[in-house]
Amino acid sequence: MSATALEAARRMLEDAAVETLPTPALDAIPSKFYDAFVLRGLKVVVAEPRRLLCSLTVPPRLLNTGKFMHGGATASLVDLVGSAVFYTAGVETRGAPLEMSIAYLDAAFADEEIDIEAKVLRTGKAVGVATVELRKKNGKIIAHARYTKYLASLSKL
């Protein structure tokens, strides 16, 4: 690989990380900030056994430079809603995701209302599997994911 290609990769990542806030201000942001940043505006429309249906009007803060919803925001929604759906199966967990496989099929744009549907496929003693799908209101699939999570018990301490 050429030194030019390596330098281009370095520049791309470092330029994207240019600080918009001074480091002390960034370090002062609470650890739960990221979840709230992604989930703010999300509404739970249906919560039934083994299924959640949520809606979200895509806010401009979740867009990438192409002006559509960032893939990282999509992955975060898969993780957060995918985790929450296990509660509808009676599994209260703080476990870590083991795997997320996401097919990005279409784009969502600012102020577009989307649905996020999660379904539990299986819960075992230690591992659970769910699907999470982001859809436009016309039914077109934005992203389809399989989400596997370690089902660690909540501590009674």
From TrEMBL:
The keyword RNA-binding does not apply. The keyword Hydrolase applies. It comes from the Eukaryota. InterPro entries: ACOT13, HotDog_dom_sf, PAAI_dom, Thioestr_dom. It holds the Pfam family 4HBT. Keywords: Hydrolase. Belongs to the thioesterase PaaI family. This is Thioesterase domain-containing protein. It comes from Rhynchospora tenuis.
